[in-house]
Every structure is written in structure tokens, then in C-alpha cells.
Amino acid sequence: MDVSVPENVVVTRLDSLASWCRKNSLWPMPFATACCGIELMATGASKHDIARFGAEVFRFSPRQCDLMIVAGRVVMKMLPVLQRIWLQMPEPKWCISMGACASTGGVFDTYCVVQGIDRFIPVDMYVPGCPPRPEQLIQAVIDLQDKIQREGTLMGSEFLTEARQQPKRALLDIATASNSPRPQPLPILPNVGV
Amino acid sequence: MDPQALQTALKARFGEVAWQYSESPRGQRRLVVPAGQLESYLSFLKTQCGFDLLIDVTCVDYLHYRGARDRFGLVYILGPSTSGERLVVRCYLNEPDLTVRSAVPLWEGANWLEREVYDMFGIVFEGHPDLRRVLMPEEFAGFPLRKDYPLRGRGERHNFERITRNQS
After folding, report:
1. Which residues contact A169 (CB under 8 A, 6 or more apart)?
2. A83–B160 C-beta distance less than 8 A
3. CA distance to partner chain B, nearest, from residue A17 (Å)
4. What is the pLDDT of residue A168?
5. Of A87, A115, A119, the CB nearest to B162
6. Tally of domains within chain A
7. With a cut of 50, which residues of chain A have pLDDT below it?
8. How far is Cα B90 from Cα B77, in angstroms, rounded to an integer?
9. Which of A15, A17, A125, B51 fits B45 for a cystine, CB–CB 3.0-4.6 Å?
10. CATH number, domain at B25?
11. Is residue A140 part of a domain?
12. Whole-prediction pTM value?
């Protein structure tokens, strides 16, 4: 039997459709603790206008967000707050580590500054720079959109793979971290989505 | 209060040998007092000499400092509320006795400043109403601005639970 598809009808997969919806309406949670926060504000303001990518709805309640942007250094006292906010965000959710401090601790290699938030919460995109230009953050959002479209699924099964449960960097044994070899990079995930 | 009058007043009240007054070429005035009597010196300076404004409380660790005889220098910076004068009141402390009387009864503003000194250096202020850590987490052990504390800490900054993707 012939199945004819009328005009104005597009056939796709449900996973793909869900990812398409999600990637174009990311609601960021601005976790801005330092000067990167100023660039984050500039990204949201009229000149750079992150609304062009559907991510302009900065929410200050984690319950309404699905993209955490950690902008700035995170200290020991702040990290439990960061983790709690991350856990309060509903699935599916993503995280952008903005700037050198959030990604690695930056120049603040001191007793109280966490040396990269990816040690303690999952991170999807890293933005280099000190602080990054708004264009770089926008590029990260675009890359994250690509990632969501590429591997996103309706039920979020891409978050449950074995590789996603691994730490990004070797922190299993802190005491010997300085003289142990660097961890092997994780295998590249197979494309789950489209 | 001009320096001469200040020294005369201090002599009349505390004798001549207990304290040392010095003035740097730039006009910075410094008063070194014994740690045990710090509170009475501060009280005298506040009530009799016009230094009624507490600018700052801080501390210096002289470990490995060239020519230093004492370990900690506790610094109270005072000024009168009517002019721009400054007077640095300093006392030296050595382990194991790192206690001084608190200045909170004299200046309410010393509360958090002394808490910070306690947090960073471990100086204990007797009579302080609420001597808790103010900057570091309460469960933190150690005093990070002491010179024998490692710059990168003792691993406290790594001591957190790691949240993975399927935990959230």
C-alpha cells in the first residue's frame, strides 16, 4: 500500500524531536561567582544577545533551569552549594564550565579554591579564557546544542552510560595524584541520537 | 594627639619600660605593648588619648622572618574619629600561649575582625562573644595564613563527594 506524505509534514524520530525542542530552549542557571559573571551578563545583554540561541531565560531558581553556567572560581565553602543546586535542577540538564577558574582553578592554586568543578559535578562544555569573551560562551552554547541534538534521547538514556559515570580527571586517589600518570582519555561516545 | 603628649600620657599611666613607641620616617606611629596588658592599653588609648576608632585588626606571622624574635605580631590599627591620625598598636605572641583579651567590649566592630584573625592564624581572643571561623568552613582544621601551612592546603579542597550523572 502506498503511504503518501502530504506537504507540510516532516517525519522524524521522537528522540530527535525532543532534542530539537530542548536545545533551542535552554534555560540557564547563572552560577556567577566572579568576573566571568560579568561576561555572562554581557552575553545575555543586547549586544551579544544569547536570545538568538534560545538561551536567554536566566532563572535564579534551579527548579526552572536545565543549563548550569558556572562562571567563576568555586571555593570550598561554595562547592556544597553548587552541588546542591546541581542536584535540585530537573533532568535533563547540562553544565557549562565557563572560564579558567571554573575549569581548572585558574591562577588560584590555593588551599581553599576547588581546582576545577568537573572533579565534583559533571561538566559538558568547557570555555577557556580569563574571562572568556561572550562570543566564546555563545560558541559553547552552540556546541552544546549540537551535542544535545547529536546524542540526546527522549528519556535521557545518554546520561546513564558507563562512560558518563566516570570522572573527567584522575581524582580517585588524591594523595598520589601528583606522581601518578595522567588518566587515559575516555572513549568517544557512540552517537545515540540522530 | 601629638606624639609627645601621647608618650607623656603613656608614661604616666604605664611607666616607661613596658611599651615602646617608634615613628617611621614617613610618620607612621607604632606602639608595641605587652600582650598581657593589651586590653588596658587599648582601653586607655580609646578613653584618654582620643583614639576612639578601630580601623583594623590583623596579624603577621614572623616564622622564618629575618631577625624576628617572636612568632606572631597582632596588630590593632587605631585612629581618632576627628582627624586622620593613625596609631598602630602591636603586641607579640608566641606559641603555645596564643591568647589575648578581646577588644570587643571596647569596639563592637572588632567582632568579625578578631574572628578573621582567629580563623586565619589561630589567635584566641578571650572574652570574645562568638569566636567562630568567619571565612573558612566550620569543620576546617588548621589556620591557613600561618607560614607553616602549605599554600595548596592539606587536601581539604579535594575532600568532597563527587556527583556523577546518574546520581542527579
Report:
1. A116, A118, A119, A183
2. yes
3. 23
4. 64
5. A119
6. 1
7. 170-178, 180, 182-183, 185-186, 188-194
8. 8
9. B51
10. 3.30.460.80
11. yes
12. 0.82
